[in-house]
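Shipment paperwork, digital attachment
Item: protein structure file
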Amino acid sequence: MSHARTGDKAVSSDVDPRRWWGLVVIALAQLMVVLDATIVNIALPSAQEDLGMSDGNRQWVITAYTLAFGGLLLLGGRISDLVGRKLTFVVGLIGFAAASALGGAAGGPGMLFLARALQGVFAALLAPSALSLLTTTFTDPKERGKAFGIYGALAGSGSAIGFIVGGVLTEYLNWRWCLYVNIPIAVVAVLGALALLHDPRDRTGVRLDVPGAVLGCGGLVALVYGFSEAESRGWTDALVLALFAAAVVLLAAFVWWQTRAPVPLLPLHVVRDRNRAGCFLTMMLAVIGMFGLFLFMTYYLQVILGYSPVKTGLAFLPLTAAIIVGSTQISARLLQHAAPRALMVPGMVLAAGGMVILTQMTVDSAYATEILPALILMGLGMGLTFMPVFATATAGVAPRDSGVTSATVNTSQQVGGSIGTALLNTIATTSSTSYVAAHLTDPSRKAAVVREGIVHGYTVAIWVAAGVMALAGVVAGVMVTAPAPKRAAAP
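Attachment content:
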């Protein structure tokens, strides 16, 4: 007995006593990155009017960020393995704050688009280094569960928090504050990172794979850009088809090169691992469904039910609360004792169930009885799923590959978001158009029919999203076979 005690002490003395404060810093940075994917959505109408943007160009405020972020993540992950996670993290924070200041001060559309692209570039450095710092800081299975619970809660609820913060800032201050708000967050995170974070040195055998970076990033940019253009131009447009073709060619060449590169950008054993591949795929499918929900619910609450930006943001609060409870109170407590898929499968079933409830909404649905239960189910499902995905995907990776593995999790999230937004938006628009065409018999009812048509389009798209969520549950159940971390650590 006394031997075990002494051994315990020896082990715990290696562990940084300030690691939980370090987690706060990592979580702040992650929140800022996820927040920025949606905070600008609510400010977009005001920014468009203020800077005189055309309807065709306004999507670049969103697209410039997602393109740079999604396209450069793998490179950002490898850079953090190469030069050090802490340094990459701090540079990412400073760059992100500077880009936010530039965007807030934008005098015209071009400057705002450039600032958003720069935010994406620095977010691509920041996100993988944040997740890999978390992976290397928390190694004890019990603590790791708690840490990933908090991280998963922020990754899942950051988008919803973005709507709330965006609504408050736009309504009471000015759209520019949706960008300026990042500066104080980044300053606090930089000071915290310099004081609290440690970076275990293990950079043996890490070099930058330039051809891999060009092929991989080029393929991802073409893919994300293809989906964002498909939304406005249609799926059979020449540019859209050319982008998808380029993405397929570049990504196929990337995979071929990774089997031959002396030091590959994405070592294929990271993706070949059955559990990790299952986590990446589950994450992508879950986010496709989730982004569809955010997109339609924002419009539904504001356009159909006539909510103000702040009220819309507050309507998302129960969803955020449910994600946090699902991640930190349910997942984090159960993950040490339960296999990851025992959380992920019920999580996706709950989320799909929430989506099915939303398919019943009409032009005058009551929030409390028809929308609130769906948001709570969705949130609990997301919380149950995201946390074990992050923990399982990054478990057991060699420290020198932790950055690029973290980047792959983030990439599957970004690509899922792009596909979800484009695919579900297209389905909703075409369903609305055909509904209005079929039901517009009495010209005096035109306004009412158009509103019914919009809601009909949303419900059709939400049915598809529910199907995608259910598919994510099947993928998690079939592919993720890892045992409970406690059992895995026992040998």
